[in-house]
């Protein structure tokens, strides 16, 4: 049965560092795939079943919003059944959409199902500007009029636009691409999206929609051709496994000098991650269930060219924070760059206070001199990924580390405490 736990309370993680991690972790469903797939369920009046759904707080909040919109929801373990026979409101509740960026995906889905929507600028991690003008431009191209006042948007269909549309995205925005897809699948005529995002989560969304009866060509490429259909139907779909969780636990094995088997991962989706980590001396041995990750001599990333987060199939920006922790334990100088977000790197002042030797070159580049010994401190995490990076730093550090606002980590990572303790870490969660 459904059980909702909306996070209003703060929690903290307390870690005693120094333990070598050993064991196995079963990688969960992809956070950034399950959210658009949940939004897609409201495109049909029939039931959609999603499996391999991760137990994360963002899913809890997305479910709350879906229920406000009129969905009936049943969640048992990792299976989620969503049935939205009628849409009760097209006003997205700000107090919930403030909590996660993925909620913006309901805008495209509501336009497709109910021809109108009103919503506030979505919340989520504060890692940069996080603009949505490309989503809005996409809606306008498809015949919707969008008004903006004080960070609140309202959009309605002003004309039936049955013409074929060919649009180009200035940058391959992930949720922007997904929002346009969600809005386009039920519109008459063809919608072409060029420079579309190609991340595994975009592919998952397209595959779900195709299973529901949508007609999408070019899935997995940067040119998507969506031929509108009259209606979509229910289906059952398995969410792909999370490359960010895979990369995070691989780095956990490396920084603690441990050995972890990671199971339930998708070879193609983890390829860019394995490529980068192998360069630093991390070993990946294929097993029947996944990969056995161990570490040799950790060496810095080359400074000839900055190691750069990029759009898929580049190295994911969401792993840059843990890569910085890894670089603090590697021998040599690493130059790491993330041009996608303006403030992703700012959390490194917390690593510096733990003893890391890091120079912030500019908002998009940091230079890390390693290896350094880290000392446990009390810190507050600013976002999901920085929070997990601080957990990894705490596992390596001498003494006790405390991470405040740890509930943010649980927005994107399931079973953190259980997983890490089962690997031999000493970590506990306290909720006041
Ligand atoms: N951008 C614009 N205009 C737009 C859209 C985006 O300027 O209209 C800019 C953003 O300001 C940002 C950059 O483009 O600087 C990338 O934004 P994008 O839209 O691609 O990111 P997103 O869709 O908001 C998703 C993930 C993020 C992940 C990024 C990049 C979800 C719910 N979120 O965000 O995940 O970092 O793609 O891969 O899918 C996380 O999981 O921790 C996380 C932040």
Give the arrangement of secondary structure elements:
Blueprint: E1 12-16, E2 22-26, H1 31-40, E3 48-51, H2 57-69, E4 72-76, E5 79-83, H3 94-97, H4 105-114, E6 116-120, H5 133-141, E7 144-149, E8 152-157, E9 165-168, H6 174-184, E10 190-194, H7 200-211, E11 215-217, E12 223-227, E13 235-238, H8 243-255, E14 259-263, H9 267-279, E15 282-286, E16 290-295, E17 307-308, H10 320-328, E18 332-337, H11 348-353, E19 357-362, E20 365-370, E21 378-380, H12 384-396, E22 400-404, H13 416-422, E23 426-430
Parallel strand pairs: 2-14, 3-13, 9-10, 17-18, 21-22
Antiparallel strand pairs: 1-22, 1-23, 3-5, 4-5, 6-8, 7-8, 10-12, 11-12, 14-16, 15-16, 18-20, 19-20
Summarize, please.
Helix content is 30%, strand content 26%. The protein is an alpha+beta fold and 432 residues long.
* Beta-strand percent range: 25-35%
Query: Which percent range fits the helix content?
Result: 25-40%
Q: How widely separated are the two ends?
A: 27 Å
Q: Strand tally, please?
A: 23
Structure class:
alpha+beta
Q: Order of strands side by side in the largest beta sheet?
A: 21-22-1-23
The main sheet comes to:
4 strands, mixed
Give unreliable regions as ranges.
Answer: 1-7
Can you list the ligands bound to this structure?
uridine-diphosphate-2(N-acetylglucosaminyl) butyric acid
Task: Output the radius of gyration.
Answer: 21 Å
Average pLDDT value?
95
Number of helices: 13
| Overall geometry | globular
